[in-house]
Amino acid sequence: MAEQLTTDALKPMSDIQIAQTRTFIDGLEQGSTPYWDAVEIGDELARELTLTPELVVLYADGVEDFNPWYEGWTMNGWRAEGSSPFGSAIVPPLLVSHFVLAVQFDHTKPFSIGSIHTFHESEIIAPIPVGTTVEIRTRAIDKYEKRGRRYVRHEVEVTNVADQTLYFRELRDIMSL
């Protein structure tokens, strides 16, 4: 008979990953509201994110985008200014889009089961220098039904916390079951 695997036996999972997974599953057991019911038009959520060289390395490696413009680090010194046609090293343009869902779902409420990201349209306005702290802000702007399915549309803006430079804008739809 095959050996029974437990969550903790699935490696590589750190103690933090195991704890976060258990917290997530416990939250699902608290009950969940469909995303359609949990969001009202005009709802806004925002979080700050520092786009460190380490975060850029993890993202670029994950998507296999090895562009020297993103290299704000060196092997022996770790942090370095780097260079690109825009001056210092820049963040891969769609890295911030990856973090929108972490803002879009209100972490103080139970997770909405059955939400599917169905559409996004990104507008890259300016390069983001590695090391910048940005605010990712989402706002629910529409709720609509199409072919019997319910959708919530959000607009997203990513700005520099220090000087409010607008770097990135996006529209995205979430289908709620």
In terms of topology, how is this protein built?
Layout: H1 15-29, H2 35-38, E1 44-50, H3 53-63, E2 73-74, E3 78-79, H4 95-98, H5 100-104, E4 115-124, E5 133-146, E6 149-160, E7 166-176
InterPro entries: HotDog_dom_sf
Protein name: MaoC family dehydratase
Detailed description of the structure:
The structure is a single chain. With 177 residues, this protein is α+β, with helices and mostly antiparallel strands. It has one domain: Roll (Thiol Ester Dehydrase, Chain A), CATH 3.10.129.10. It contains five helices and seven strands, in the order H-H-E-H-E-E-H-H-E-E-E-E. It has helices at 15-29, 35-38, 53-63, 95-98, 100-104; strands spanning 44-50, 73-74, 78-79, 115-124, 133-146, 149-160, 166-176. It has a five-stranded antiparallel sheet. Strands 2-3 form a two-stranded antiparallel sheet. Strand 6 and strand 7 (166-176) form a beta hairpin. The longest helix has 15 residues, at 15-29. It is globular and about 50 Å long. It starts with 14 loop residues before the first helix and ends with a strand. The relative contact order is 0.19. The model has no long low-confidence stretch (mean pLDDT 86).
Give the gist of this structure.
This is MaoC family dehydratase. By secondary structure, this protein is of the alpha+beta class.
Shape: globular
Q: What portion of residues is helical?
A: 10-25%
| Overall structural domain count | 1
- The CATH homologous superfamily is named Hotdog Thioesterase
Mean pLDDT: 86
Distance from N terminus to C terminus (CA atoms, Å) equals 38 Å
Unreliable spans are none
Question: Numbering strands along the chain, what is their spatial order in the largest sheet?
Answer: 1-5-6-7-4
Q: Could you give the order of the helices and strands?
A: HHEHEEHHEEEE
Radius of gyration: 19 Å
